[in-house]
Amino acid sequence: DIDLSKIARVKKVLRVSSRDLPAYMGLTEEISLSGLRLSTSEPLETGQQLELTIEFDCNKVGTRKVRATVEWSAHKGDGTCHSGLRFNDLDSITFRKLAQYIQLRRPRPD
C-alpha cells in the first residue's frame, strides 16, 4: 500500500468554515489528498463527523465542500488546538482539484 498522504501534502493556511467547528471556523496547517490538520480555538471530538467548506487561494479550485472525520485532537503550546481530519468519500472532481492544488503549491526541489 502506498500512503498518498505522505507523498501529496502541503503546508498551507486556508480558511475552513463549518457550523460544527468552535467559532464556526478554523485554519488549515497542512492539507493532503486524504485529509487535513486543522487549527481551532477548542479541541474537536475524536470520531466526530464534520461538514466543512474550504476556501482555497486558487480560482481553479475555488471553495469546496467536504465531509471529514476527526481522527485526533490536541492542545498546542500557544493556547489553540489542532486536529487531524480524514476526508470521507471525496467526489472525483474535488479529489482531482485537490491533487492539482497540492501539486501547484508543493515546494519545488532545488
Low-confidence stretches: none
Rg, alpha carbons: 13 Å
List SSEs in N-to-C order: HEEEEEEEH
Count of individual helical segments: 2
SSE order and pairing:
Elements: H1 4-7, E1 9-10, E2 15-17, E3 25-32, E4 35-40, E5 49-55, E6 63-75, E7 81-87, H2 92-105
Antiparallel strand pairs: 1-3, 2-3, 2-5, 3-4, 4-7, 5-6, 6-7
Question: Could you describe the 3D structure shown?
Answer:
The chain has 110 residues and is an alpha+beta fold. The protein is 16% helix and 42% strand. It contains two helices and seven strands, in the order H-E-E-E-E-E-E-E-H. It has helices at residues 4-7, 92-105; strands at residues 9-10, 15-17, 25-32, 35-40, 49-55, 63-75, 81-87. Strand 5 (49-55) and strand 6 form a beta hairpin. The longest helix has 14 residues, at 92-105. The radius of gyration is 13 Å and the shape is globular. It starts with a helix and ends in a 5-residue tail after the last helix.
Give short descriptive properties of this protein.
110 residues, alpha+beta, six-stranded antiparallel barrel, 2 helices, 16% helix, globular
